Amino acid sequence: MQAREIIIKDTKLVVRNLDRDDLNQVCALSMLHGWTSSSEDIQVMFDTQPKAFIGIFREDNKLVGHIAVFLLDDKRAYIGIVVVSKVMQGYGLGKILMAEATDRVGARDVSLDSTSDAQSFYRKMGFRNSPIQTLSFTGKRKRIENLEELSPNVIIKDVKNKADISQVFDYDMKICKFVRHKHLQKWLAPSPFCFSHVAFEKQDGRCVGYVSARKLDAGIYKLQPLYADSVEIATALFQHLVTNCPFGDDVMFRLYPTKQAMPHAREFSRLNGLHEEGAVSDFRMVKGQDEVIDWRCVYSTSNTTSTAL
Ligand SMILES: CC(C)(COP(=O)(O)OP(=O)(O)OC[C@H]1O[C@@H](n2cnc3c(N)ncnc32)[C@H](O)[C@@H]1OP(=O)(O)O)[C@@H](O)C(=O)NCCC(=O)NCCS
Predict the structure, then answer these.
(1) Domains identified in the chain and CATH numbers
(2) Which atom of ligand 1 is nearest to the CA of 112?
(3) Where is the N-acetyltransferase domain (predicted)?
(4) Is the distance from the beta carbon of residue 213 to the nearest atom of ligand 1 less than 6 Å?
């Protein structure tokens, strides 16, 4: 987009695409407003779609508002990290950011995850609440002794490089229903903040599941994505993860299952010592057709903490 100037309350501001150099400011501003995305996650989102990020800056290049609009395919888009700095709230910047984002969305269906406080703002912008509600499960590690018996036909491998990541592409596509190879390459890349493992059927080498644990906050990792052919395979993946990665005993793991996966998630959580935490603080909102995609599985990086459960 072309950078453009606006005047708000006699102050000259610039609306433009964000550069990589601006991401530190995005982390700082979003954290001030309750986001728990790590800077690594924001980097991953940026690397996946650099043009997704729009910011509003003061003349001294101080960021005062930002938004990200991810165009997933020609039918779907997702809006995230909508923030206007406290001192600039109420002057129409949120509306300007949403208008820029909506322009890019075009005729696509669009969804977002809102805090309870921001719902009225989004309603004004034409969004409505989606029926999708997500529960979360949280807990510390629990070792299972008889793992071999639980899933005897499965081999678990660490994800170490791009070739390993490509082994989950077909499996992921079957579940997620669209192609997101580029995203997965960025998202699952091993780092001190992200550990991933793939499960293969011993006999024919078929991929039968994969898990990624991403750092959400100090001492908290989310298990996302966690896909497997059975609860036993999901358990084998998780147990391999907690045994082989340097998490330490006090780390909490959090799981955000989709509604369809809820019975499996309950069983998985029971086996692995996670407990149900209640509804997450975000509210899914949509514009266009009703949303069927689990967006948390696509860009599951923008969990906010500003609202009580
Ligand atoms: C939500 C937020 C982005 C709105 O930005 P803003 O610049 O203050 O909003 P605007 O001034 O553009 O307001 C646009 C309209 O929405 C209304 N509005 C803004 N925030 C609102 C709120 N929390 N509740 C109800 N209405 C609200 C305004 O009154 C205005 O209405 P009008 O067009 O009838 O005059 C901003 O308050 C914010 O960053 N909050 C903290 C972070 C956050 O909650 N982000 C969203 C999380 S999903």
Answers:
(1) 4-132+283-298 (3.40.630.30), 135-279 (3.40.630.30)
(2) 48
(3) 13-145
(4) no
